[in-house]
Amino acid sequence: MTAGAGLQSVHPPAALLATLLFVAAVVSLGSLPPLGAAAALATGTALGLAGGVQPLRGALWTLPFGGLLILVLSFLTPDGLARGLVLALRLISAVLLMTALKARFGTTGLLEAVRGLRVPAIFVSLFGFTLRYTEVLAGESRRMLVARRARGFAVCRRLVDRRAAVTYGQLLGVLLVRAKERSERVYLAMLSRGYRPVSPGQDRRPSLVASGREAALLAVSFLAAFALILWDRSL
Questions:
Q1: Burial class (CB in 10 A: 0-12, 13-18, 19+), 224
Q2: For the chain, which residues make up each domain, given as ranges?
């Protein structure tokens, strides 16, 4: 994988496969030097794929989480600091690359990429609905919380707040009921408009490799992953 402007025009299925190959290699590494090199390579690739730092803001949550992981493991085991760094670098590298893919291609592009990997059409449809309606449910939960706060609800600052726990439990129950009812309405509306879970049009899948650029990307990704694994095993 190479960072730069060339990544802006890469075919979605090839970019997804190359990313998955590299992430699979990164999460198998157990030594800090190869992981450091992998994290640097992942950062450069993510910047090139996303076109800058701004689209990668969604991955910033990994920094405090990784720091907390390192801090906690440092007190639990003698080699906790090294283990925490290993886990944090794995997490940051994987999340950066997947966030860059989402920023570059969007939901539609990711679904096209999954189809290009010859994933069965029914699973592609389920994946698309999950991505779409997760955001819908998140918006619904925010509206419910705002409505509750408008009625005087406030989270207590104590470590254990029974009243707040009961309120959040009620909100979760209502959200699940509304999600079930909405899913039934949406599904019936889609069927009435001719939707079928697997339509003939979904059998036309994009090619995995559209040009020599994609073939080179896959080759470089495989070689980089293989070299990192060899380096890690030799330490």
A1: buried
A2: 5-118+205-234, 121-203
Q: Which helix (H) or strand (E) holds 131?
A: helix 121-150
> Residue 205 — φ and ψ, nearest 5°?
-105, 145
Q: In terms of C-beta density within 10 A (0-12 exposed, 13-18 middle, 19 or more buried), how is residue 127 classed? A: middle
Question: For position 50, what pLDDT does the model report?
Answer: 80
Distances (CA, A) of 103 to 56, 69, 106: 7, 26, 6
What the block records as the tokens of 25 is 């290699």
pLDDT digits (tens, 9 = 90+) for 175-219: 888 888 888 888 888 888 887 766 555 556 666 666 677 788 788
Nearest 10 degrees: Cα torsion 137, 143, 145, 150: -170
Give the chain's residues under pLDDT 50.
1-6
Give the predicted TM-score (pTM) of the model. Answer: 0.68
